[in-house]
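Hi everyone,

Forwarding the result from last night's run.
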Amino acid sequence: MTTTIAERPPVAAILALGLTQIIGYGSLYYSFSILAPAMARDLNWSSELIFGALSAALLIGGLAAPTMGKWIDRFGAGRVMTAGSAIAAAALAACALSSGKIVFVAALIAIETASNLVQYGAAFALLVQINPKVAQRSITYLTLIAGFASTIFWPITTALHAHMSWQSVYLCFAALNLVVCLPIHAWLAFGIRKSKDGSRGPAKHVEPSLPPSIRTPAFVLMVTGFALESFVNAALLVHMVPVLSGLGLGAMAVMVGTLFGPSQVLSRFTNMVFGGGLSQLTLALISAVLLPAALVILIATAPSVPGALVFAVVFGLGSGLSSIVQGTLPLALFGSEGYGKRQGQVLAIRLVISSTAPFVLAFMMENIGVPWSLTIAAIVGATAVLGFIAIGRLAHLLDRSHHTSAVLAFIGTKFSSPG
């Protein structure tokens, strides 16, 4: 009975983190697309230039991610997230109060760097540090809650911006990070420290499922798969409506695009209810297959509205599942020791690759058209599928070679023994 209680996910921590993830993603990422036109007008920039500044900020933030991952392992995810909330609040305020373009870009870089300290990478590590044994379930529950960030913050940002300037909206969001997120992260950090100092001691580590001999190639394959998935995901998310419009869907493009968010949440709920019997590698493979499959459906059926609706649902399912396995697969394959450092490395490569995606897809659509651009994106997504298949193949070949060695050793023992 004691084991069952110990193995329950930390519900209070998940709910608290769910709130901070909604605020973190909503204020630091999703609000930007709503406020960008006003920012561009104030700075006398084009829309392309303002989103180019965001891409540069994401890229620089990604390069800092490995160092942040080391901090998470060294100081604890709770402390890092507490500091991250303070930095995020200061960066949002600096952006709102910026008097020129250079200060604005510097503040934007600070915002995207701080986001790595408070969003999924750090939150997943915190759940692993609280209890590694149930971290996979905890991560699934957390992504289910945080999946509503865009649904909540797009209308909130729009409503606030209807009555105040983008600067005032950012100051409100700075206050949210300072007044709501910082105390929650500090409480979680204190809770972990108290648990480790108490009589129960820290939760047991999750052991790697892969032997040392194949961990390096498996890690390279996994990171490659995640990076290619992120490229496809980022490219389509930014250009969802233009892509659908370019395929002849016209006014229906916006309606089709709205199905993406609910489909993400649906995939996380489905995984929570039915995914317990599947390995994390299998779930990673399913999520990787869904993204190019959705693009193939869109290319084959355009300009059919039902086909576009199916595309939006399938793409949302793949994207939602992908955000889960990016937290759970590294834990399953490589264990909980050094989890923060690995997440930082994965995040860095993902952000560097995905930050180029909107520009690359826009360039391709301009020069070779939407159908051929989507075909190339589907090929990129299919390459990610091959990466996850290769990890499974590596593990299978190693198991078979170990089995063969054991059989040969047994036969050798039999023949060498007297009588």
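Residues 8-204 form a domain with the Growth Hormone; Chain: A; fold (CATH 1.20.1250.20).

Cheers,
N.
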